Amino acid sequence: MSGLPVASIKELSEKHPKPSDIKFTYGTAGFRTLASVLDSVLFRVGILAGLRSKKLDGKTIGVMVTASHNPEQDNGVKLVDPRGEMLESSWESHATTLSNASSTDEFISALEAFVRDAKIDLSKPARVVYAMDTRPSGPALVSALEDGLRAIGADGRNAGVTTTPILHYLVRAINTKGTAEAYGDDSEDGYYTKLTNAFKKLVSAKPTPSPLLIDCANGVGANAAKKLAEYLGDTFSLVLENTSITAPGALNNACGADFVKTTQKLPSSLSNIIKPGQRGCSLDGDADRLMYFHLDDRGQFRMLDGDKIAALVAAFIVELVKAAGLDESIKVGVVQTAYANGASTKYLAERLPVKCVSTGVKHLHHAAEHYDVGVYFEANGHGTVLFSPDTLAKLADYQPSTPAQSTAVEHLVNLTQLINQTVGDALSDMLLVEVVLAHKAYGGLEWDSLYVDLPNRLVKVVVADRHIFKTVDAERRLTSPVGLQDKIDSLVGKYEGGRSFVRPSGTEDVVRVYAEAVVKSQADELAFRVAGLVYDETGGDPATRPKEFL
Ligand SMILES: CC(=O)N[C@H]1[C@@H](OP(=O)(O)O)O[C@H](CO)[C@@H](O)[C@@H]1O
Ligand SMILES: [Mg+2]
């Protein structure tokens, strides 16, 4: 075994010193914080990505530089494993440890220990493909990443400015090239061609959909949606808004999927553009989340979130599987989190198996892999559909006995091409939604009426130490602080259709309180009473108690 290239790491590491007063964490969304403090993290991630590739026998690893829906001054970085999935969780803590070594010497010792413990064969090749979103801090951070790749001797491929899901696609396409599982050509052209060819086949016998308004969050989704529109040609026209990717401060500002979900409002930049009866959607800053909305006939804004997308898509796939005559051998299931609207869970559970897992895409993704076809969406609009290898083989080998069965199987096969199965993908999900709407001849109104959302409220509570909050049952119940869950239960019992749960955030230094009830004012009241309880029970200072807490 050859050793670490210590001299080269040392020399380059000196150019990327760690800020002394900061503790970094590789969390649910990778490293994410103010861009101005991330230089050393990117350098070290470059080395880590190289080591991950060596550990996996030279398979290509992805690195995405983005802070998604966060404000423009933030940035972040996450690693992508060879099949396009999130980094294996055991490596998250190694990433955290390496990022916090205080000096170059300490960093090198930590690397040496890691290489030994993880039994990494340094003589293996290392390959990494990387990309960034449109943030102004991106280029400098990418150059720190490239120093890391150089230090460990990894081959880097720069995929430029692109979306998170395209980077995930590229990783899988590169690693499956020339195999029976080839995912597509390993280029952006390959991605757009794959998606749009499948889309065109799926809607070929349907009327052309009315043009769709897309809020691009002033981010990288604007570039991607523009290219997608070119590949779609006349089949489907996209009206792109919030495309100012170079305007200072515009990214995610009062627009984008997260804004729509958290404020339950239309971005004001669209208010003069969207017409009653029209549908539109918002992407987030790296185009992996999607929120739909429509204005009803009276011009009222109606949000169609990840739960509504899951309901629409899952019911459609179940219908197709049945129409194909495959319902005995292909089982469709849905994965949600506790934040899924109770009405969506009820709607889905009446039709197919539904599983609830902890917050965070990796939990949903892994649970969805256990179904033949697993549909997963977070309420915030991040999700996709996974077809198991067995299911893909069944679809490929199936001999339909009627023309109707044959059409249904063809549709299913085209869906496997349309859907980005590596990760949630706003553009792929958008085409998927449009396919279902076209097949069902639904507008926003019909889709929205699948079920009626229960009124709900999400509240943040700032506490002294959120780590004392421990949960069980897919985060729906607290075991610590002891006794708090009983108090929440007795509050919930007072509200018709009441549901509430409390969990520590994995991405912000807060505790989140979610509440639902049959009436909006009651959902708000329940949320603020539970928030008040959490605050008081964990020693919150009465002087700074938020006044809306009850
Ligand atoms: C209530 C909520 O929307 N939580 C979000 C948020 O996680 P928290 O752990 O709740 O901070 O960020 C995650 C990463 O983007 C996302 O997966 C999740 O859905
Ligand atoms: Mg995102």
Automatic annotation (TrEMBL):
Q: Which Pfam families match?
A: AMG1_II, AMG1_III, PGM_PMM_I, PGM_PMM_IV
InterPro entries named among the record's database cross-references: A-D-PHexomutase_a/b/a-I, A-D-PHexomutase_a/b/a-I/II/III, A-D-PHexomutase_C, A-D-PHexomutase_C_sf, A-D-PHexomutase_CS, AMG1_II, AMG1_III, PAGM
The pathway where this protein functions is: Nucleotide-sugar biosynthesis; UDP-N-acetyl-alpha-D-glucosamine biosynthesis; N-acetyl-alpha-D-glucosamine 1-phosphate from alpha-D-glucosamine 6-phosphate (route I): step 2/2
E.C. number(s) listed in UniProt: 5.4.2.3
Q: Which GO terms describe its biological process?
A: carbohydrate metabolic process; cell wall organization; UDP-N-acetylglucosamine biosynthetic process
Residues holding Mg(2+): 68, 284, 286, 288
Q: Which reaction does it catalyse?
A: N-acetyl-alpha-D-glucosamine 1-phosphate = N-acetyl-D-glucosamine 6-phosphate
Q: Where does substrate bind?
A: 378-380, 503-507, 512
Entry cofactors? Mg(2+)
| Keywords from the named record | Carbohydrate metabolism, Cell wall biogenesis/degradation, Isomerase, Magnesium, Metal-binding, Phosphoprotein
Lineage top rank: taxon: Eukaryota
UniProt key word Repeat = no
Q: Where is the Alpha-D-phosphohexomutase C-terminal domain?
A: 458-531
Q: How is its cofactor bound, per UniProt?
A: Binds 1 Mg(2+) ion per subunit.
- Quote the catalytic residue positions: 68
For this chain, one GO molecular function annotation is:
phosphoacetylglucosamine mutase activity
Give start and end of each Phosphoacetylglucosamine mutase AMG1 domain.
Answer: 189-290, 305-442
Does the keyword Metal-binding feature in the UniProt annotation? yes
User: Top enzyme class of this protein?
Assistant: isomerase
What positions does the domain Alpha-D-phosphohexomutase alpha/beta/alpha occupy? 60-93, 121-178
**Which PANTHER family does the UniProt record give?**
PHOSPHOACETYLGLUCOSAMINE MUTASE
Please state which protein family the record places this protein in: Belongs to the phosphohexose mutase family.
Function field: Catalyzes the conversion of GlcNAc-6-P into GlcNAc-1-P during the synthesis of uridine diphosphate/UDP-GlcNAc, which is a biosynthetic precursor of chitin and also supplies the amino sugars for N-linked oligosaccharides of glycoproteins.
Q: What is this protein called?
A: Phosphoacetylglucosamine mutase
Native species: Pleurotus ostreatus
